[in-house]
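Checked the freezer inventory, then went back to the computational side. Two predictions to log before the end of the day. The first one is the construct we discussed on Monday; recording sequence and tokens without edits.
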Amino acid sequence: MSLRLILVVLILVSTSIFGFACTKFFEAERPKLHLGYSFGEYKCTNSFEENLLYLHNSVRLRPYTLELDDELNSEAQWWAEQMADMQELRHSNTKHAENIAMNYKDEKDVFDGWMGSTMGHRENIKDRKFKHVGFGRAKDSQGRWWWCAIFK
């Protein structure tokens, strides 16, 4: 086995074990790293939409990465605010696929919840037919976050 192949295998194993991407070797294959990871420590460095986009694209290989869509961001933000105001977690009447959640503390937390869900959330994130995504979040009067992701 060549040294390069061994290196690639080691990087892939470390990525799956430690949950971080080594973009130095995979810049052409994977989205650019936007978040700081330090063995489970989550550090938010960008807007929540960019952080969620990175997390979503981290489980999708190019050319199947998602792009942020301003219209979907607006729709998702509006719905997150509606759920927070109503104090009710429910799907909107959107014609697109949608993930919703409440009471997750940050982007990594809600993403992990969606990826661990058995209710279709993971499938929405990984579905290659979706090319665009929008994200919204709103904090209610009790300090809980309400989250929405819309895919098309």
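The second is the one RB wanted added to the comparison set:
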Amino acid sequence: MILITRPSQPPAYAERAALGQTALEATAAEGGFKAQRRYDFDSSIWLAAREVLREASYGKCVWCESQADYTSLAGIEHYRPKHRAEGLRKGEIHPDHYWWLAYSWDNLVFSCENCNRAKRNRFPVVGKRLEPGGPSGAEQPLLLDPYGTDDPSEHLWFEDDGTVRPISHRGDVTIEVLALNRPDLVERRREAAALTLSVLAAAPDPIPVSTLAELTAPRREYVGLRRQLLERHQLRVGTEAAAEISVPETVTIVPPDIGAVWIEKVDIVNFGCFHELELRFSAPGEGYEPWIVVLGANGSGKSTILRAIALALCSEDARRRLAPDASKYVNRDARASRGHVRIRFNQGDELRLEASRGSRHFTVTGRRPEFALAGYGPTRLLPHRTTSTSHRATGPQLANLFDPWASLANAEPWLADPRQVPPDDFKVLASSLKTLMSVTDEIALSRRSGKMRARMFNTTVDLDELSDGYQSILALSLDLSLAFGGERGQGYSTENFEGMVLIDELEVHLHPEWKMRVVSDLRSVFPHLQFVATTHDPLCLRGLQPGELHLLERRDGTITHQQTDVPPGLDADEILTGSWFGLDTTLDPKVQADLMQYRNLRLAGHGPDDPAVADLQHGLELTLGSYTGTSLGRVMVEAAGELVAEQAAPAAAADTKLTKDQIKERLLAHARERTE
């Protein structure tokens, strides 16, 4: 890390930031988080800042000095988080900090995705935080500011092996918050250090100014490390080098942390119904973790994937309860006597779960980082109030993924208890739950006498009186809040939860409108959770990003896999009849049979006056006219149907343009008739 001069604010950014700030101030005036409202941040505003900040840092992350990927919004981070700032203590959350600085030019930094992931909303300070809306100079941050006045070399000491040690309290906090000793970064710094030292060793004495300038040029990676190596080298070879180099004492106050843990890849070999399967998570987006959504027919292995991941990641005790006979998971059609699941983490760790024929016990090799996990099957309604929250037999929720009759934990008494969830934490959680329930800000969640209640549609009801759709969403989100927040002492700011969630049949109990929003809403509320979900519903594919959809197909007894994306803008019928679902048509089977009979009669020479043809045509016009979704769609079906009826045989390729022109003319004619 080195000091960087902040560039001037572009006028285009200032204009858009002012508009965004006005919207945030309106939310604050309505009560902000205390009124269970979420601040809506317009990420497109930061696009105008990205290139200017990138050039100022020579394309490097200002925190770790690695070349940053600026092809996405992951290049923009906030020194002070947009909201829900975290302190050093577990569960320490400040929900109103620092929304008013979300668009402030002096609060934006250019950062790599790994530092973004590690930092999240963490921003420790000494003493009291700013009053909402107050000036940034009124508090004492512990995180070093690359654009500030503090020289990072006074807080960070880089070793020849690529590690960095804290030599001040602020340095200690900065290393922990940004995970500056994560293994991949340490290795890259070690290589830079080795190259720098080799150049210095081969250079003449005195070292040419041009060599020094090239080694420490700001555009190069890890200049902070190179400068310290150069200073130490000059002390060693100087005429007064007899004095021993003074090595600052390490200052360690914060527990060491190698940063957030996430999964990069899952391999399944001869396990369950799979011979070989590889699932890779795509790169993270702006402030959120990537998903994997698995699409496939019944019997294609979707649930097997979820259970394989769960068995690999859970504890030994949970594994014995969930799968008492490991031999049943070895692929029956494979010649091999063993099957395995291998999971690779971002820190370079790998975990391998192996099952063998003739053995009821799994074998696990490799190191499992601390990693929170929850899994859910298709049946996930709110449990009975008598269900206890005091003990989960399998740790985090997994039993429901293996047993559809296993109840979810009854999180309601816990979350409804002010002693367990303080009032401010409850308001933060309520605003997140409302987003998932797709309800307006005027609707409020409350708690009384150990129960949570919802004020909606001009009445107040208990949660178990809500519809199955609401219950399904609430059961999932409440259980996640307990598993990733309350039980881990992490508080109830859902944006700060980390780990993995496995969900079978994401679409269960959801209204079509919810299905189209469920991925986007869950991603918004739980941005740092990795989701692996299965679905049969084309509407649930809305909101997926490139690289997140995986298709399973069973062909000749073998399951094939491919990563494939759905182009934006397709409707449900287009998705269903495309390669993702492979349906020939979405028409009712009887309508499809009538269309084939009509076509065959016309091709056989029967004219429109033939009673059978006329009867079929009349029935088809009534059916298609009644069930096509929009008035425009009905006009198109009528026009195309008439044209096909007149031409009988399908158009040749050379006649495609003529056919389209004829349909357009027929559409215009129908439109004129309807307006006269």
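For RB: The CA atoms of residues 271 and 339 lie 5 Å apart. DSSP finds 19 helices and 22 strands in the chain. Let me know if you want it refolded.
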